[in-house]
Write a structure and sequence with these properties.
Elements lengths: L2 H9 L10 H7 L6 H9 L3 H7 L10 H14 L5 H11 L8 E4 L12 H18 L33 E4 L3 E5 L2 E5 L3 E6 L2 E7 L11 H24 L10 E7 L6 E7 L1 H15 L1 H6 L13 H9 L16 H7 L9 H6 L6 H8 L10 H19 L4
Parallel strand pairs: 1-2, 6-7
Antiparallel strand pairs: 2-5, 3-4, 5-6, 7-8
This protein binds iron/sulfur cluster.
Length: 400
Amino acid sequence: MTSTAQRLAEIRGGKPPRRHNARTIAALTGNPGCDRRAVLDSAGADKPALAEQVGFPARFGQSRFAITRGNAFEAQVKADGGAELLRLVAERLGVDPGGPGTWTDLGADDRPGGPDQPDRAERSRAALAAAAPAARGRAHLPTGEAPTAEPQTGEAQTGDAPTSGEPAALFDHPLLSLDVAGRRVHLEPDLVAARLAGRFHVVEIKSFPVIDGQADPGKVAAAAVQSAVYVLALRELLAAEGHDPSLVSSDVVLVCPRDFANQPVASLVDVRKQLLVLRRQLDRMARVDDLLARVPANFTADPAADPDHLRRALSSVPARYAPDCLAACELAYFCRHEARAETTALGRPVREALGGVADVAEVLALAAGEHPGAPEQAEAAALLRAAARLRADALTGRPS
Ligand code: SF4
């Protein structure tokens, strides 16, 4: 074991590292500047247990109802060998699928023992790499489009129709992998479509609805980052097999129920921006020695440690709490409590509206006119005093 691996093992108290998945990797991009999170995730620390032990348990996760509904919708969409799914995806890409297409369930022969079996990974590698040459030479990168995570449910995009006569191919349950902080993490996209518009497309099936062409922006953004994880892993797979990684489109296909019915609708989501952020954060975690150099030598994230000791240990590593953490990190309630005296805990728009003053007590003192503040705070102080006057007028019903 290297000294870095040894140090990371000590940080998590000698316990096995928590396994990452696409959701947890996607969450890494939520707050890329946070050292605390980067160290804990690099070590594979058990953050839910840690949050529980320090008295701030995490409160997010999918309900059983949502999981069941999601599974039922996915089964419906994938029925009949994906015939309707292929039609939807091809229509959205604006291409002719070149026939009924082929359907390969890469999980069909899986033996018990978990998703990281070499057999399935090897089957996925071989099948996806074999599908690549047919697409080679027709790859093109979309140009002139702004990176966006908005679903495009309007007119279908125009793409290259298959020219080789080979039918489109759909791969169900592929097993991909990616290096996260020196550990190989296995990933399971819902589906990969090949030979459509000459490229591979990651297809994600989500049960949140698209109503009048619009979906919940937060859910679309989360699906976009998760899909970017799969795009990156698929590009690495093809590159390792000697193929052009740009054969994997950065336009992922999101399939959701339309309006309030269970009819599926396909949308394109451009994940180029998410890919950049993801790559940057994974590179940062790969340089884990730089991170560890900023962490006290006795830092521990062992959930079995004394709660007071753990709270002090966590506080010794810099964090960057923002309200977005509540939806993405198990330590959010601990970090929010810790940052309660800082305006950053209220979110960037509020902090900016408060003139960028960092401390809540200082904001209140400036608003009350207790002191004029530093010269560079003069404008913020005047605005805060005016806001305090308006509030007092509103509460008393008469102008001051
Ligand atoms: S909740 Fe805390 S540890 Fe997690 S990302 Fe936010 S600031 Fe960092």
